[in-house]
Amino acid sequence: xxxxxxxxxxxxxxxxxxxxxxxxxxxxxxxxxxxxxxxxxxxxxxxxxxxxxxxxxxxxxxxxxxxxxxxxxxxxxxxxxxxxxxxxxxxxxxxxx
Amino acid sequence: xxxxxxxxxxxxxxxxxxxxxxxxxxxxxxxxxxxxxxxxxxxxxxxxxxxxxxxxxxxxxxxxxxxxxxxxxxxxxxxxxxxxxxxxxxxxxxxxxxxxxxxxxxxxxxxxxxxxxxxxxxxxxxxxxxxxxxxxxxxxxxxxxxxxxxxxxxxxxxxxxxxxxxxxxxxxxxxxxxxxxxxxxxxxxxxxxxxxxxxxxxxxxxxxxxxxxxxxxxxxxxxxxxxxxxxxxxxxxxxxxxxxxxxxxxxxxxxxxxxxxxxxxxxxxxxxxxxxxxxxxxxxxxxxxxxxxxxxxxxxxxxxxxxxxxxxxxxxxxxxxxxxxxxxxxxxxxxxxxxxxxxxxxxxxxxxxxxxxxxxxxxxxxxxxxxxxxxxxxxxxxxxxxxxxxxxxxxxxxxxx
Lengths: 97, 401
Hints:
The structure holds two protein chains of two kinds.
Chain A: E1 11-12, E2 28-32, H1 38-42, H2 49-53, E3 59-60, E4 66-67, H3 77-81, E5 87-91
Antiparallel strand pairs in A: 2-5, 3-4
Chain B: E1 3-7, H1 9-19, E2 24-27, H2 34-46, E3 52-55, H3 59-71, E4 76-80, H4 82-87, H5 89-97, E5 103-108, H6 122-125, E6 133-136, H7 140-157, E7 161-166, E8 175-179, H8 182-188, E9 205-206, E10 215-216, E11 222-223, H9 226-255, E12 263-266, E13 273-277, H10 280-294, E14 299-304, E15 306-308, H11 312-319, E16 324-329, H12 339-348, E17 357-361, H13 371-383, H14 388-391, E18 394-396
Parallel strand pairs in B: 2-3, 2-4, 4-5, 5-7, 6-7, 13-14, 13-16, 16-17, 17-18
Antiparallel strand pairs in B: 1-8, 6-15, 10-11, 12-14
Helix pairs in contact in B: 1-2, 1-7, 3-5, 7-9, 10-13, 11-12
């Protein structure tokens, strides 16, 4: 049985996935070239400007840097801010990307 | 024995608010409403009413304060008129969409342009589609009784209620009012339980952006989209008819004053000509009916106490034997006819009840409506009964054309 929403007015809770997989709003996706990305190149936790600027908080500060594509809306801010030009925006579904 | 006092409609409204032990009052002054909130501020200052009075810079903010206070569980009240109500328009939709049981008095006044501080019902009629329940009062006794019932209705169905009464004609006119006993009101009105309680242990975002479709939330529950939320509001207002009637019956038993119907009747049992209207114009029509009966015309008055939800079934029943119907209104939907007239016609559609019907527009901007003029309107209506042309036109009473 599907659970029914009992609320009589609209409300949401602050939780991951509360509005569904918002990654499906994306037209273009960020692709990281780990040959240029500073933490991968230096093998140290460094730079992480993409993580700092990401308005959705979907970038993880690891080695290598990872982006949660379930919720990345493809705004392209990470690609714009990356000082090593390691992130490129490619069309969603473009396998060459 | 209940106490009887001579008071204005505005004092009656403020007294009802005190009896309901409202916790937050927020309002901005506007004629002819001002003395409602002035009286309330005196009650609060003297400690007679233990409530917070929030002063604001506009009616838009007054309603916003009511929305916020009601959301966190307070019983709230505001009052306004005319341009103040129009300035609140956006927040009226928010209050209804958030399903908050706010009670507001609308002391009916005409709207500009040109400026008028005097009475008609264009202000509340203009807010018809905001999702508020609208109740209209015919005298000061009804004002005090209707405000008390309004809280119970609002808090049972979770929808806001607008209690409308005519500016000056009722708001500033002194009449004897039987004061309901405070203990009786306490037993009649249980404490307000909000439908959502905001708490740090269970954080929520109230009224987030809603997409056209439904959505699964993080707990996997398929949540209502905009249409489902709005459907629930419509369903609630439709069902609120039963709550309005059952509340009225309970209140009637406690006070001996009859609120058992969404309509009130005056000499309609054998009436062939039915005059109908909302508020004090219907009260005035009762005087005209007495005159008409002296002339041998079997007339009666059908007073419409509830405008939203519209009492269509009760209207059908009340008009089934009418040979002529006269709708008296202090409002108009420009380019067509009075709002009440359109709704009455719609209620009769397809029922086979098809009496000749005339729509009289009267008393706009406070022009006096005398029983004599209503008497003459009925005579005009009867002579024009078979004229299809006049039935699709508004007839303006006491207006140079």
